[in-house]
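Technical annex B. To support the medicinal chemistry partners, we prepared a structural model of the target in complex with (2R)-2,3-dihydroxypropyl phosphate, based solely on the information shown next.
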Amino acid sequence: MSKIRNIPLFIIAAILVGIKSYIVYRFYFDLSIESIFQEIILIINAFAISAFFFFLAVWMKPKRQKRYIKYASLIMGLIIFGNLLYYRNFTDFVTIPTLFQVSNAGDLGSSVLSLFYVTDILLFLDVILIFNFANKETFLIKEFTGLFKRRLVVVSLAALALNLTLAEIERPMLFKRGFDREYLVKNVGLFAFHAYDIILTASTQSKRLFADGSEINEIEEYVDETIYKNDRVNSADLEGIADGKNIIYIAAESLQTFMIDAELNGEEITPFLNDLVDDSYYFDNFYHQTLLGKTSDHEFLLDNSLYPLPNSAVYFTHAQNEYHSLPKIIEQKGYDSYAFHANNGSFWNRNTMYETLGYDEFYDEESYEHDDENVFGWGLEDKAFFSQTVDMMKELEEPYYAKLITLTNHFPFDLPEEKATIEKFDSNSNTLNQYVQTVRYLDESIEQFFAELKQAGMYEDSIIIIMGDHYGISAYHNDATAEFLGMDEITPYDEVQLERVPLFIHIPGHDDHQVISTISGQIDFKPTMLNMLGIENENDIVFGNDLFSTDRKDFIAMRDGTVIGEDYLLTSESCYERESGELSDMENCADIQERALQELSYSDEIIYGDLFRFYDFNEGEIIEEEEE
Ligand code: GP9
Ligand code: MN
C-alpha cells in the first residue's frame, strides 16, 4: 500500500484520461487512421493534452489539488461525451458557432435518447476511479518542490511541441487551412481543437463587431464604376439562354489548361474534352483564383463572385456570414441547388457552408455506395461517382443547379494500373508522370457522364459547365513540366500561364461555339450564370463580369499577388508584357497592381465585417438597423 501512496494522483489521472481519450478517438469516433504515423500522433496527442491539464495540479496546495484533479477529469469526460453524442448524430465535432445554432440543437433534441449506448458508462470509468482515489487518498497528494514543478512544465510543453511538430509534418498548415475538423481532432485531439475553435471564433467575431455597414458605400461606388461601369453590360446573345434549363456544373479536380490538346507520345491526353472545345464556348485564358482553401475557395468564388481570404480557408472561418450567393438568387426563378461530392461532408466545412450559401441538399460520401472495386485515390472514383450521381439527379425536381465535384484527379494522382489507358509521362516527377493518367481518367469519366445524361434524357434540358478548380502540378515540379512542354525552363511568367484552368460552357442544341481568349477568371462565373439565366442582378455586389460581355474590367487578380492585365502581367514583383512575356518596367504594372489590391481589400472587408448583413440587395441600399 505504501508503494502506491508514493505515486502522485495527478500522474495516475493523466494516464487514465490519456488512455480513455485514445480509446474514444480510436473506437468510439469513426476517425480514419490510415498509417502507423497517424496512429502514433493520435496516441501522443491523447497523452500530451491529458498530461498538460493534470500536471498543472502540482502548482496547487493539496486541498485544491485534489478538487482540481477530480473536477478536471469530470469536465474532460463530459466534453468528450458531449462530442460523442453530437458526432453520433452529425458525424462531426461541436464548434462554438454550431453550439449557438438553434436548428442543430433542434435536430439533436428529438433523437437524443437514441444516441446513448449502455456501454457509454465505461467512458466515465476513469472519472469514477479518480474520484475514488482522491477521496480515499489512495495516491499521493502533497505540496511539490519548485524544481519538480518546473521539470513537469518542461515535460508537458515538450510533449505538446512534439505533437504539433508531428501534426505539421503529417498535415502542413493544419491550423491555417482548417481542412476538416476530423483532421484537427486526429492530429491534436479534441481539447486542442476546442481551444483552436474558441480562438478562431473570438477573432472573427471581434472583426465583425466593429463593422457597422457604413463601409459598403465606398465598395458600392467602386463596383458601380469598375465592374458595372455605370451601365451594366451583359452579352445580349446569351441573355436568358439558360432560363428554365438545368445547370450542371462539374468541378474538374486539379485540371489545368495545359493538358487540353496536349499529347503524350502522339496521343491526346484528353480526347473527349478536346472534341468538346469544338462544341462549346471554351475559355483558354481563364485563371483559377484560389488560395489556402483550394477546391472550397473555387466554390466560394463561383457562388459569390467574392475573393477567398488571404490567411485562411473562408469556408472554414466565415461560414456563419450572410452571403448573396448564387443558390439564393436563383431560387427566385424556381431553382433548387444541390451539391454532389463523394467525400466526407465536413471536409472544408462544406456541410455548414452549403447551408449558409443556400444549397437545398448535399449528397456527400454517405449518399454513395462504395465497394472494393470503386474506391481508389481519395475515395469513390469518378466513373462510379458520375453514374451514381446521374441516378440521384433523376429524382430531382427541375429546374435545378447541380454542382458535381470530382475527386480521382487529386494529388498524388494514384490510379490502379489496370485502369490506366495512357502511358505515364517519363520524367523525374512521379507526380506529373501519374497526373497524365488521372487526367485521362477524368476525361473518360466526363465522357461517360455525358453519355449517361443522354441516355437518361437529361442532356437536352441542361447546360453543362466544366471547370478546373485549381492547379494540380505545383511549381515544385517545374523541371518536369518544362520537359513536358518542351521548354528549357519555367520562368515566373510561365508559372502564371500554368495557373490557367479550362472552362467549358456547353449548351446542347446551340450551334454557336467559340474559343474565347479574354482574360478571365473564377470571379466571373456568378455574373455570367445570372445573365444566362436572365436574372437582372442590378444591385448585386460582385467583383467579376459576364464572361461574354465586351466591356469588362481589364484585369484578373490572383490571391498570391499576381495580377494579369490586358497588356501587362505582374508576378513575383516583376512586370512582364502579357503576350510576349518580355520583362518590362515595374511602372507599367503599377496601375493594375493598385487597382487589384484595392479590389481584394474591398472583398476582404465584406467578409471580415460580414457586411452583407447590413445590405438590402432588393433595394440596393444599406439597412439602417441590423435585424438579428
Ligand atoms: C476534398 C476535395 C479536394 O473534398 O474537394 O480538395 P482539395 O484538396 O483539392 O481542396
Ligand atoms: Mn481541388
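Notes passed to the chemistry partners:
The chain has a mean pLDDT of 93.
The longest strand covers residues 246-252.
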